[in-house]
Structure formats: structure tokens, C-alpha cells
Amino acid sequence: MVSTDRGDLTRTAILALLGTVGPLSRSEIARRLDLSPATVTQLTRELMGHGMLEELDLKPSRGGRPAVRLGLVGSAGRALGVKVTADHLVLVDVRLDGEVLGSWERPFDPSAPDALDALAGAISSVVAESSADERTPPLLGIGVGVPGSVDDQAAGTVNAPTLGWRAMAVGDWLRRRLELPVLVENDVNALAAAERLYGRGRTHRDFLVVTIGRGVGAAIVADGRVYRGARGGAGEFGHLPVDPGGPVCGCGARGCLEAYVGAAGLLASARARNVHLDLPALGRAAAGGDAGAREVFAEAGAILGRATAGLINVVDPEVVVVLGEGTADWPLWRASFDAALRAQLYPGRRDISVEVESWDDTSWAQGAAALVLATPFDAAGAAGEQGRLVRARLIGATP
């Protein structure tokens, strides 16, 4: 039996596949997503019932009965995705078929007393702008990705030290201000949802997403579902203990992985080598052959490689996807990361593929939008009242 809770992204993976490659037959969908024909038949029937898929022309065959191709009804709905950072917001408008209709960037100060008012105001202005054309698909809801732990997507209470937020009622505040369904999630988990729908994760049901940049994060996708843990805090990879006598981390503990390989850790390592540069300049210096700068990235790569090997040994994924603004300097990390990773991997896992994707801030926001696009299939009710409201908006807008 196929799981139907919010974490199960298989239905939305079908939508994303069709949105990416165009109409396909049921057998082609089953082959590309490694699903059984019976599962694909069941799920596509549900999607057609929701008005999201339609049968198109027949695909010619060399013998036997021609296969009916299925295509997306992209106009069935759309979602607005919002990525919250320490100094700005990224917002994207995404159709059910994965097509990005528009993107925006707005300044943002999470430490301001009126931060949630400012967040609601920025979203409201984009909602108005994106909905101005009456031909635009109906808006199903808002997805918000934050760099911290979230108790539950439907409730949306956030603890995010990098934003200075503690028990911040983001979801409740935005729902009251916007009068729209709102789902809030850890940004790396949201990114994993986008990767499952639009990226390399489309063809893998078990994979890891590791992000490097200002901080370090991870998301675990197991059997096609993002694993959140008991309190929504799974994936805090940056706070894996590396050395109890190490530098103080932003979380208050000593020797966390992030304290070594996050942006602040890299700069501290550079200063210890008498290299006083900002991060972009540090990367340029290393690329230009500066020995001290190169040592910074080589050391960080080895530390990250060992930590990632430990995570792989525990969860046994098919593939690891590395993302984040830090990937701009990945050639400087790669050699030491690969050597440390392979040396620490359990036998039989040393051939695992590590895929490094180019970075784009809109990827975070697409993940947040994917939270909403997956919600209509929450038959088990894990998204609570917000899921019911999203489904009501979808069903009310489609035949």
C-alpha cells in the first residue's frame, strides 16, 4: 500500500516528471520513477480525479494496443514559495507542473521588532502582483522555508538561532495576516522536497541532501519521504560533534561541524593562518594558488568528508546531493573531501555517487513551494487544517 501522508512525495514526483519531460504513458512513468505499474495506475487515477492530469493522444506502438499518454493540467493550481535568510527573502511562483512563473527578492531583517509584519507584507505584495492576471492559475497556498527547526509544517512554530527566532509563531501569524493556507518547514527539508520533484532526486527514493554555506545542513529522504524526526529537527548535520575542545559554535556548543566548515569557521581558519580576507576573496586567493587559503578549504573538505561518511554509513542512501552557496568553491573542497569520504565509508558503500549541483537561491524557494504542491495528496491528514484548506482551494478551482 502506498503511503499517503505529507511526506510521501511520489504523487508530486509524477507531476514533476511530466512537467519536466512532457507527456508520458503510464508504463514510461513507472520505468522512470521505478514504480510498479499497479502503483502508477492507482496514483494517476487519483491525480486525474483531482483535475491535475489528463489523457492526451495515443502514442504509436510497434505492436499491440497504442499507449495513452498522460499530461499535466498545469493551470489547476500554483503555490508561492518563500525562502527566509538572515538578510533577505527569495520568493517564487510555481505551477503544479513545476514551471516557475516569476521570482522576486526582498530585503529582510529577522531581528527587527516587526519582522513577521514585514514578512507578511512582502508576501502579500508578491501575491497581489502574481495574481494580477486573471489567467493565472489559482493560488493554493504559501510555503515558507526557514534555517531552523519547525515543530510541524501546519503549525509553523520556528526555532532558528541564525535568525534570532525562538518559538516564533510564523505559521499562525502569516495565516492571520494573509488569509491563505501556509506551511512552514526547515529550508533544507524543503530543498529536499524540491530535489525530489525537480532534480536528481526524481529517480532516487533514498538520498541525502547536504548543504554548505553560511551554515551546514542535511535532509534525509527515505523511501521517497523526507524524514523530520520526532520534533521536526532531523537533519541538523551542522551540529554533529567533531571535537569537544573545538571552537564555539553559533548554537553555544563546542566543536560542531558547522564551526569548522561553515562560513564563519572557514574565515576563522584563514585568520589562524594569517590570511585576512572575506569569503569570496578567500576563494579567489585559493583558486589563484595561495597556499594558506588552499589549506583552509583542504582542511574543511576533509572534515566534511569524514562527517558525511558517517552519515552515509548510518542511513545508507543511493546518492548524496551537495548544494548551497558554498558549492561555488567546490573545486577547492573536492580532493580532500573525496579522499576522506571514501576512506571512512563502510565497505560496499565506497562507490556511492556524490552529485554537486550549481547553486541558485530560487532553489530554496522552489522547495518551499513544493511543500504546498505536495499537500493535496495528504489523505492521512498530516498537514492538518492547512492541508484541508489547500485541497478545498484545489477542488474548488478544478472540475
UniProtKB/TrEMBL annotation:
Q: Name one GO molecular function term.
A: DNA-binding transcription factor activity
UniProt keywords (A-Z) are: Kinase, Transferase
HTH marR-type domain: from which residue to which, for each copy? 10-54
Keyword hit for Secreted: no
Looking up InterPro entries in the UniProt record yields: ArsR-like_HTH, ATPase_NBD, HTH_MarR-typ, ROK, ROK_cs, WH-like_DNA-bd_sf, WH_DNA-bd_sf
Tell me which family the UniProt entry assigns to this protein: Belongs to the ROK (NagC/XylR) family.
The name under which this protein is listed is Putative NBD/HSP70 family sugar kinase
Protein source organism: Nonomuraea jabiensis
